[in-house]
Specification:
Elements (H helix, E strand, L loop, with lengths): L1 H14 L1 H21 L11 H15 L6 E2 L2 E2 L6 H13 L3 H35 L10 H17 L2 H7 L5 H33 L16 H17 L2 H17 L2 H7 L2 H23 L1 H17 L11 H9 L7 H6 L2 E3 L4 E3 L4 H5 L7 H18 L12 H16 L13 H19 L2 H4 L9 H8 L1 H21 L5 H43 L5 E5 L5 H6 L3 E4 L2 H14 L4 E6 L1 H6 L8 E6 L2 E7 L2
Length: about 625
């Protein structure tokens, strides 16, 4: 009865484009609001990386220099300028605050979810027409229902996954890069399908049998290919050469596999496309090189691009299996269905055969719309393989493949609902095994949650966090949520209610996000970051004209952001002590303000009578040291 009511509603949507658009926006807004915007600016910036971007963007706004990024009065060439521009614009509109810092990332993540939603519903609709030639009902749900169910599930899986949530709520460049890269890949595939359909339409309309060329009229690429090129330019302007290398690798692998490389190379108007990419991305690179010369070239291209791929940078090394764990945990708890989604078979309605992705001979002759799952697989394996080979490894590097994981699992769901209940998993290899793995994985998360406080070592920056976490009972609440979910999943499996498994996972994750992760985040912020914000405010209130601010023994860029002052960072306590003695001999300053842990003052050669404590918060103190 519920299925019939849902079908009627979906058919109404099909007949009313405005209602379809409103419903789509509501779905994307709901899942993105929960995942990306809920309490977005409620905690302070998290050291080490986030304040570097936040302060560089603030300095760009203050200096009025939109070409050369600065942090702490030094050039910062880690990343190109697009993320700084976005954050600086957000500052102008909403003021300098944490919400504005993170807004570009949250909007970029929402755009990713929205575009994936659009492409999924487009694909299911196209596939239904191609396979059946009509909209007659198959399986338990009508085509209209499948279209919106698959798109909604895909959007929810992507938005409510840990990796997407973490980087959508971080004021760094990773999510903006993912938006440009993911959107570019999807635009390419839309253009790829559109070219074939346009060619077929021209053949029919002209009734000329020898019109076989895929080339579209004119010298310019189609609208989707043009959008692809613009987004590639944006990716280069967000993170550098990887913005074109990685999508180029993915598309090259895909086109070679389906035997369309030369054909598509002609239809995409590569020369014009490269000009579009250059117009979008090169002006900033030319200007920043003109201003900074080899300092920019060596730092940006040499250190932050070539060395990161060929050598370990900033001790960010990891074993070869690192990204297997990142995908498993970064897309938890849904990642257990990924093997089944990768191995899913494509049903050929003409021959009634199930085709695997490695049966290349079959795919060579298929219409382009039928190659969608192959394209997503090339996307997933391209990103995964590229960064597995790279020597420097970070969890954020594989962020662009997370939407591909969500799409693959949504396509698996599409196969499930296309079948009658009795035949639902017979054509989906390994689904029953994945479902039981889901139960085991969720139960393991539940049991582990009870022991999380014991896994934490001593943290000098937040010495009381472990004790407060134990007292909060948050880990016990998390354990109960996941163990209850495991029990419900097992019951549903016994009753063969396969489709409900995805909903239980999503609900359990939302409960975990609301009642465990968010309170734990506030707890961590109160112990680790809030003391630094409070001491920054104390330093600004007490700072005298031309009085230097120093940070000794630790490096927390958030102090530079919250004081909005230059900070002299000195790692060694002994060197800091010598620096203060030298300043006393040669400067006109009367004193300096020092941020440090209390034990560092004695290491600097200071006695208790040599300084005045201005503030004491958490593990840190801020003091004034007279120089005269």
């Amino acid at each position: 009865m519920i299925n019939h009511a849902f079908d009627r509603w979906c058919k109404d949507i099909e007949k009313r484009p405005v209602l379809a658009m409103i419903s789509s926006v509501l779905v994307v807004t709901l899942v993105s609001g929960i995942g990306f915007f809920w309490h977005l600016g409620s905690i302070g910036l998290i050291d080490e990386t986030e304040p570097l971007f936040a302060e560089a963007s603030r300095q760009m706004l203050v200096r009025g220099d939109w070409i050369t990024p600065f942090f702490n009065n030094e050039t910062r060439f880690d990343k190109p300028a697009l993320i700084y521009w976005c954050q600086a614009i957000a500052y102008q509109v909403f003021g300098v605050n944490e919400w504005a810092v993170r807004l570009p990332s949250a909007l970029a993540a929402t755009a990713v979810v929205g575009f994936c939603f659009y492409v999924l519903q487009w694909y299911v609709a196209k596939q239904n027409i191609y396979q059946d030639g009509n909209h007659n009902q198959t399986g338990a749900f009508s085509h209209a229902s499948r279209r919106w169910m698959v798109a909604s599930l895909g959007a929810a899986l992507i938005a409510l996954s840990p990796e997407m949530i973490v980087w959508a709520r971080a004021g760094v460049s990773d999510m903006l890069l993912s938006f440009c890269m993911v959107s570019a890949l999807l635009c390419f595939f839309l253009g790829y399908v559109n070219e074939e359909e346009s060619c077929r339409s021209r053949e029919i309309s002209n009734d000329i049998s020898n019109v076989l060329s895929p080339l579209s009229p004119g010298i310019f690429p189609s609208k989707w290919y043009t959008a692809f090129y613009i987004l590639i330019g944006g990716a280069i302007l967000t993170k550098g050469p990887v913005g074109i290398v990685l999508p180029g690798l993915i598309i090259g692998i895909f086109l070679l596999y389906v035997g369309k490389f030369k054909q598509v190379l002609q239809e995409i108007r590569l020369f014009i496309g490269l000009l579009i990419i250059a117009l979008v991305s090169l002006p900033w690179y030319v200007l920043v090189t003109w201003r900074n010369g080899w300092n920019f070239i060596n730092d940006f291209f040499g250190y932050h691009n070539v060395e990161r791929f060929t050598a370990v940078v900033n001790r960010h090394s990891a074993p070869w299996y690192f990204y297997f764990l990142v995908v498993l945990l970064g897309f938890a708890p849904y990642a257990v269905y990924l093997p089944s989604a990768i191995l899913r078979k494509n049903r050929d309605r003409k021959t009634n055969l199930n085709i695997n992705f490695w049966q290349r001979k079959y795919w060579l002759s298929q219409p382009r719309i039928q190659q969608f799952s192959l394209f997503i697989l090339a996307w997933f394996f391209g990103v995964f393989g590229f960064f597995t080979i790279a020597v420097t490894k970070l969890p954020s590097y594989v962020l662009p493949l997370m939407p591909a994981v969500g799409i693959l699992i949504a396509l698996l769901f599409n196969d499930l609902i296309a079948q009658d209940k009795s035949d639902r998993i017979s054509t989906v290899p390994g689904f029953r095994l994945s479902a039981w793995a889901n139960v085991i994985f969720v139960a393991a998360i539940g049991f582990t949650s009870f022991y999380v406080p014991r896994l934490f070592g001593e943290d000098s920056a937040a010495p009381n966090f472990k004790q407060l976490l134990q007292q909060s009972n948050l880990t016990e609440i998390g354990g109960i949520i996941w163990l209850a979910a495991a029990v419900i999943l097992a019951i549903l499996l016994k009753k063969k209610m396969w489709l409900s498994l995805f909903g239980v996972n999503l609900v359990a994750f939302c409960l975990f996000l609301f009642f465990v992760l968010t309170p734990a985040q506030y707890l961590m912020d109160s112990e680790r970051q809030m003391p630094l914000r409070q001491l920054s405010a104390i330093a600004v209130q007490n700072q005298r004209p031309n009085e230097e601010l120093m940070m000794v023994g630790f490096k927390k860029p958030s102090i530079a952001f919250y004081t909005q002052r230059p900070i002299n960072y000195i790692r060694s306590s002994e060197v800091a002590g010598e620096y203060i003695q030298n300043q006393a001999a040669k400067t006109t300053q009367q004193s300096v303000i020092v941020f440090a842990q209390p034990k560092k003052f004695a290491e600097m050669g200071l006695q208790v009578t040599d300084y005045k404590i201005l503030g004491d918060r958490g593990a840190y103190q801020v003091i004034r040291v007279p120089l005269k």
